TrEMBL record:
Belongs to the DNA glycosylase MPG family. GO terms for biological process: base-excision repair. This is Putative 3-methyladenine DNA glycosylase. The keyword DNA repair applies. PANTHER family: DNA-3-METHYLADENINE GLYCOSYLASE. Keywords: DNA damage, DNA repair, Hydrolase. Its EC number is 3.2.2.-. GO terms for molecular function: alkylbase DNA N-glycosylase activity; DNA binding. InterPro entries: Formyl_transferase-like_C_sf (IPR011034), MPG (IPR003180), MPG_sf (IPR036995). It is an enzyme of class 3 (hydrolase). CDD domains: AAG (cd00540).
């Protein structure tokens, strides 16, 4: 049986390209999370690019560490990190092996398995909010550090994979500053989203965290 075009997994060479080519091209693609309770499929509507050691906003800017090691690995793998002591965020590694770059998955539309996603996102007021923001996206899909390093391009059973979906026409793609990024990295217009899509998260400039006295 030949898979329909929109359900065809993206090949590894899709991710083995410059980060600023991959990031906008991920919009409209479908991320499938397989779980014991059933699958959840999400159409990507918002992403952010991070260019490793060339990018002050990237986790890999100061070099390789145990935390960011996956970013230096083969393209098409999943990089999951923990932030603010409470949330997980999910990225897809891009570019050639040994050169760290990744795309943060910021938001998406749940197109399959919404019932399961709702059980993980009880505070969502409607289905448009289920994956509206990177931490919400990871929570809705049940993504945590156990999935760090997962090969999203692997054949056969895999907990995460990326399908071709329906690429978004370039005239529907918008870009602007990344959300919440401080310093020199905050000026890069490397956040990409689908114009007028209700699942896209609102832009927020970086606000320094106050230290407790």
């Amino acid at each position: 049986m030949i898979a329909s075009p929109d359900r065809t997994p993206l090949p590894r060479n899709f991710f083995d390209r410059p980060i600023l080519e991959v990031a906008p091209d991920l919009l409209g693609r479908v991320l499938v999370r397989s779980t014991p309770d059933g699958p959840i499929a999400l159409r990507l509507t918002e992403v952010e690019a991070y260019d490793g050691q060339n990018d002050p906003g990237s986790h890999a800017y100061r070099g390789r560490t145990p935390r960011n090691d996956v970013m230096f690995g083969p393209p098409g793998h999943v990089y999951v990190y923990f932030t603010y002591g409470m949330w997980f965020c999910m990225n897809l590694v891009c570019g050639p092996e040994g050169r760290a770059s990744a795309v943060l998955l910021r938001a998406g539309e749940i197109v399959e398995g919404a019932e399961l996603a709702r059980t993980r996102r009880l505070s969502a007021r409607n289905d448009k909010e289920l994956a509206k923001g990177p931490a919400r996206l990871a929570t809705a899909l049940g993504v945590d550090r156990a999935l760090n390093g997962t090969d999203a391009c692997a054949a056969g059973d895999t907990p995460l994979r990326i399908l071709t979906g329906t690429p978004v026409p370039r005239d529907q793609v918008r870009n602007g500053p990344r959300t919440g990024v401080a310093g020199e990295g905050g000026v890069h217009p490397w956040r990409y989203w689908i114009a007028d899509d209700p699942t896209v998260s609102p832009y927020r400039a970086h606000v320094p965290r106050r230290r407790r006295s």
